[in-house]
Amino acid sequence: MKGILRYLAGIEGPNGFGSRSTAEQVTQDCVFPYSHLTAIITGGTSGIGAETARVLAKRGVRVVMAVRDMKKAEMVKEKIVIENPEADIVVLEIDLSSLSSVARFCSQFLSQDLPLNIIINNAGVFSPNLEFSEEKIELTFATNFLGHYLLTEMLIEKMIDTAKKSGIEGRIINLTSVIHSWVKPDCFSFPKLLHPIKYNGTTAYAQSKLATILHAKALSRRLQDRDANVTINAVHPGIVKTGIIRAHKGLLTDSLFLIASKLLKSVSQGAATTCYVALSNETRRISGKYFADCNETNCSDLANDESLALQLCTNGHTLIHDYLHLSRPNLCLL
């Protein structure tokens, strides 16, 4: 309720930005040296991802679009280049629900010998019905958490190396959702996340978004222990009129959806917090935190559970390690 009231009132946070700020506005006066950066953005073919790619490219960042639909990605790239002819856009294929596809993407990216300053784990799915990935893992969890977890694990050493050589802080942004707070402790069990007994699409989505915050918490601690010049934070973009919201419409009455529509952010407002955390000098050395409306805020108690975060990432690492070493024995997972 507080978030809705803040949005309607247009209340700004301590940094002068708020729910109605746009991605261009929050990056307009950034002093972060983004003109020599390379960023990977997953799911950049529509909505928040496409706007994030556009704004980062406008600010001079080389953007690597990690996408499932190459045709749509090329159309987005074309629009960005028309607006900004100097934009540097690379398009690479990935299916985040497939561990083998994620591994191929990472190998392909690393073979290009590009620096890596920013990873934006943006892509997400909402599945109203129970579906499974090619590895027989529940699709929402496989895409929203496991795929991004593997991508980050396989590229983290590249980020650490880039930050060390350039002296520029590396940044990882995990997109999450405020509905992570709906998850109760007794409903968050790793085996059941992989293979639910009773499936509910909204519950599965909320669980996957809780997992993305826990991932940020656990990896932040690892990076700090290594004294690495890389941060990771979780970002709630707000309720934005995207494909995922349209997928939820079937769960709402038409009248409720009409009311909710009036409270939705524009895509540019939805991309603002991601772009702010990625590029602002004000977020320097901030790691393991949760942002909404371009300001640091509080997540749920469960999302702050360090032991749960460690347990989740340990289980995720074991699962991915076992699968990839069975299917690709020569692959090294750090």
UniProtKB/TrEMBL annotation:
Pfam families: adh_short (PF00106). InterPro entries: NAD(P)-bd_dom_sf, SDR_fam. GO terms for cellular component: chloroplast. It comes from the Eukaryota. GO terms for molecular function: oxidoreductase activity. It is found in: Plastid, Chloroplast. Keywords: Chloroplast, Oxidoreductase, Plastid. Gene3D superfamilies: NAD(P)-binding Rossmann-like Domain (3.40.50.720). The keyword Flavoprotein does not apply. The keyword NAD does not apply. Belongs to the short-chain dehydrogenases/reductases (SDR) family. This is Short-chain dehydrogenase TIC 32, chloroplastic-like. The lineage of its organism: Eukaryota, Viridiplantae, Streptophyta, Embryophyta, Tracheophyta.
